[in-house]
Each structure stands twice: as C-alpha cells, then as structure tokens.
Amino acid sequence: MKHRIIIWIAVLMAGCSVAQEVQPEPQPWKLAQDKNGIQIYTRPIEGNDLIEFKGITLIETSITSLLALIRDVEATPQWVANCTTSKVLERINDHETVTLSFSDAPWPVMDREAVVHNVITIDPNTSVVTVRQTGKPDYIEAKEKVIRVQRLEGFWQFTPKQEGQVEVVYQLLSDPSGDLPAWLVNSSIISQPYETLRDMKKIVQQDKYQHADTSPTTPHP
After folding, report:
1. Could you give the C-alpha distances from 129 to 117, 134, 179, 180, 209, in angstroms and in order?
2. Which of 91, 104, 203, 215 sees the fewest Cβ atoms within 10 Å?
3. Strand 146-148 and strand 111-122: pairing?
4. What angle do CA 123, 91, 62 make, to 5 degrees?
C-alpha cells in the first residue's frame, strides 16, 4: 500500500499538465537519473521542503506532432503518469486553455484535482515552442471529498534539432496540498517525469499525431 501511495503522488507533481520557474535565485540542477536517453534533474526549493524536477530527452518526431499530443487533452491519461482524467474547461483561443485534471488516490490519501492555465508560445528566432502552465486553484469550485492543488508551475519546451529530432524539456514544481509530508511527495520526483517522457515517446508516434495538421505558429512570448 505504501508503494501505491508513493507512485500515485507522482501525478500530483505532474498535475496532468506543465509550468514556469518562480525562484528568484534558483539552486543548481543535479542529475538524478540518466536512463534510456532520458535525463532527470532535481533541485531543492529554498524556504520549502519540496523539490523541483526537470526531465530532458530527444524524440524522433516533429514539433507539430508534439503540439497535437499536448492539445489532445482527453488523451493525457494515456501518457502522463497516473493521471486518470483530464478535460478542457475553457478554450480561450487556439493557443490558450484552462484544463481540469483528476487523480484517483489509494486509501487513505484523498483524491486530487488541478485546474491549470496553459499558454503556447513560439520564439520567432529559434522556433522553440513553450507550453507554460500555471495552477488556477480558484477558477471553479472544488468538488467535495477532493483536494484542489494550490500551487503548480511548470512548462514543456520543444526545441527542433537535426535529423528530425526534437529536444523535449519537462519541468515542474507542484505542491499537492493537504496533509501530505514533503518526503512522500518528493519520493516520486524521478519516476514521474521519467515514465511520462518514456510514454510520450511512444504515443506521439501514433498516426493521428504524426499526420496532424496542427500549426506550430503561435503568439510570440
């Protein structure tokens, strides 16, 4: 049971989603795992017991395909570790949405949900695409017997490389809120991003993403 709880906590760090750095003087990154072409870095947050993670890998695909996957919100549980449901609450425009993600928790941990504001931008000089996510805990009323994630900040970043590859960076800092010790939250800080990037590599190869016509042209940052 303890193992199940620790694995489930990983999804809280993912929020079934993505967001930006907020520390004015961030600590240096430390390589925590390098496995199957996926590097996971971590760093402590000053004044907080939580740990931030950053996962990096190369995927043989296009930015267009990756954007199609990110925009397919309902498919998020198929590749983001331990995310059970995800849906769009508001589609502000083609590049900006508000989403709701949900995670079933094993007893005795209460279920969690996260409301996230997602914004896609592109750097006109480098063609690097960034999907920034910020938690919006007060966007809608939380359900009964569910704890709303109060803090979520992170991002996905897609950088075109040579030979048809894209460098993917997945960075996140999230506090699942509620009565959970930091050591338990941090226990899945490596496995969650690793499993998410591993499964992203697989699912993005599906025809519906490889043949997507989603344009990477987005508002500039």
Report:
1. 16, 17, 36, 34, 17
2. 215
3. parallel
4. 40
Residue type, 143: K
- Of 40, 6, 31, the residue nearest 196 (C-alpha): 40
Q: How far apart are CA 25 and CA 29, in angstroms?
A: 12
The mean pLDDT of 135-163, rounded to a whole number, is 89
Average pLDDT over residues 111-122: 92
The contacts of residue 206 (CB under 8 Å, 6+ apart) are none
- The pLDDT tens digits for 32-74 are 999 999 999 999 877 666 788 999 999 999 999 999 999 999 9
- Is the N-terminal amide bond of 108 cis, ω within 30° of 0? yes
Res 157: pLDDT: 98
CB-CB neighbours of 83 under 10 Å: 22
Report which of residues 13 and 74 the model is more confident about: 74
Q: What kind and span of H or E run contains 7? A: helix 2-14
- Angstrom CA distances, 65 to 58, 59, 61, 88, 201, stand at 14, 11, 7, 19, 11
